[in-house]
Design goal:
Length: 384
């Protein structure tokens, strides 16, 4: 029987690549649900091509366009965030790929877990905002969370067959982004266009900015702690500009396992969708002689403050990582809209972390509240 997949965020970078993987393996996968927020044309084209059972357009303003375009297909069309939360609970879904951007991934992911659906997690913000609640819900509902993020996929692949062996340390590799080695002075005047030009990975705008500020790596540290049950002190970030080693696990005997490959998201996507099987493919292979040097250096947390702020937030626990994420979403948007500079982003996040009320043991409702309150306060901070 084919694995029936729901893709939340099917028109983004991860979503479209997941559909490529599915298209190449029609005997293994079928598409049950696809969803998008505003990318109507791509969503309609995907629906016609993959013939899912259901399509959800999260922004209700787009409902008419989508339902009109698909009226002659045997496809159900729904709109709104409530529909998004309900559709993940549908009976025939085997695996939910969460590939939407930011905080919006939280509730659909939570509802999918509550409905007992296995998760292929590409939305790391869900784990940043509510890692404790999500991992607890997954345990209670016997749900597997399979990482899609390349670093976490690497760690997961290194751990297969080793789940009973304690981990001594994880080395989370980091390309360093487009501004690796730059001084604070040089960073003062970098533009949105500079920040969007990632040297190794082709990704959506939000994560590309997060990669340039190293917030992405901070989020990934938090994600790794929750996915693999580790304290932040066991996660080291190491800059590896070639992005060939996707992360490393060090065991208690000092032995280290690394997972390597070309920087292509289709590989970790396919691994998560196909787990526990590896699926034969014709993706380009890594050639050692094309890349004779693999190098490593420490990250500069004095300049890339977001990484230090992430360790601080995870150290504080409670709703602090949620504050970190919500403040980051606002500053990234402001930066993309050219309202604030590159270096203002961490400065404003730090202020938001000081201003929003700290809650030691937040409920899901507390986190929803924290997210809204942090957005409000951070917007004010970006205007001053
Ligand atoms: Mg990553």
């Amino acid at each position: 029987m084919r694995k029936r997949i729901a893709i939340l965020g099917s028109t983004g970078s991860i979503g479209t690549q997941a559909l490529e993987v599915i298209q190449q393996n029609p005997e293994i996968f079928e598409v049950e649900v696809i969803t998008a927020n505003n990318n109507v044309d791509i969503l309609i084209a995907q629906a016609k091509k993959f013939q899912p059972n259901t399509v959800v357009i999260a922004n209700p303003d787009n409902y008419k366009t989508v339902s009109e375009a698909l009226k002659n297909e045997h496809i159900k069309v729904y709109a709104g965030t409530d529909a998004l939360n309900q559709v993940v609970q549908m009976g025939p879904i085997d695996l939910v790929l969460t590939a939407m951007v930011g905080y919006s991934g939280l509730m659909p992911t939570y509802n999918a877990i509550k409905a007992g659906k296995n998760i292929a997690l590409a939305n790391k913000e869900t784990m940043v905002v509510a890692g404790e609640i999500i991992t607890k819900a997954a345990l209670e509902n016997k749900v597997e969370i399979l990482p899609v993020d390349s670093e976490h996929s690497a760690i997961f692949q290194c751990l297969v067959g080793e789940f009973l062996n304690p981990v001594e340390k994880i080395y989370l590799t980091c390309s360093g982004g487009p501004f690796r080695g730059k001084t604070e002075k040089e960073l003062q005047y970098v533009t949105v266009e500079n920040a969007l030009a990632h040297p190794n990975w082709d990704m959506g705008a939000k994560i590309t900015i997060d990669s340039a500020t190293l917030m992405n790596k901070g989020f990934e540290m938090i994600e790794a702690c929750w996915l693999f049950g580790l304290l932040p002190a066991k996660v080291d970030v190491i800059v590896h500009p070639q992005s060939v080693i996707h992360s490393i696990v060090q065991f208690e005997d000092g032995s280290m396992k690394a997972q390597m490959g070309l920087p292509d998201m289709k590989l970790p996507i396919q691994y998560a969708l196909g787990f526990p099987s590896r699926i034969k493919n014709s993706f380009p292979r890594f050639n050692f002689l094309d890349c004779p040097t693999l190098s490593f250096e420490p990250p500069n947390t004095n300049i890339f403050r977001n990484l230090a702020l992430s360790f601080e937030a995870m150290g504080s626990g409670g709703n602090m990582p949620c504050i970190l994420n919500a403040a980051n979403e606002v500053v990234v948007e402001s930066f993309l809209n050219k309202k604030i500079s590159f270096l203002q982003m961490p400065a404003i996040i730090e202020k938001a972390m000081q201003k929003v009320e700290y809650i030691e043991k937040p409920t899901l409702d507390d986190l929803i509240q924290t997210n809204a309150e942090t957005s409000r306060i951070t917007k004010l901070l970006t205007e001053n």
